[in-house]
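Need Phosphoribosylglycinamide formyltransferase's 3D structure for a figure. Predict it.
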Amino acid sequence: MPSPLRIAVLASGRGSNLAALLAARERGELPVEFVLVASDKADATVLQLARSASIPTMVLDPREYADRRAYDFALFDRIGAHQPDLLVLAGFMRIIDGEALKPWTGRMINIHPSLLPKYRGLHTHRRALKAGDPEHGASVHYVTAELDGGPVIAQASLPIEAGDDENKLAARLLPLEHQLLPAVVALIAAGRLDWSEDGILFDQQPLHQPLRWQDGQLLR
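Structure prediction for Phosphoribosylglycinamide formyltransferase:
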């Protein structure tokens, strides 16, 4: 029987996406081992969640380093000591130095609250509303040096409703994020999804468009 996929999670906040991953594992949907939860904030509630699940934690304070590059190299050096197969950015609110993440290319994914390539960066719900978009959504993508610009693996979308404001839209999207991320990690754990220099491979075939979350599953 193959060993479970070893996962390290990086997060800066409450950890709702980690909670979704843990719940999926408890349901038997995610054959993974969480080897580390790391954060740049000592008071991030994601750390409490990890400790309650008996997952090793690490806090690295950016203020203790001369610059972003020095911090990022130190961070990934310490993460590497835990030998994860996959790094999951789940609300990690930092831009990562491109050289520091290069060794992790194809082994690091991020969940972002927009239908990429729309609205990279912050305030995605506000920007979608301001633009008058008919729909909004979330994307899981491989992390590259380009901010929120790596190849998109999968997306979930929902219609924007007349009564939506920024907070309402964010609240309606969050449950979709909590379904999308575990589903993508499950495909990686099953060996069905992989990175190649020529693009994403899904079931050994090139993935030309992001998978879409529909009716409780990821579809081409």
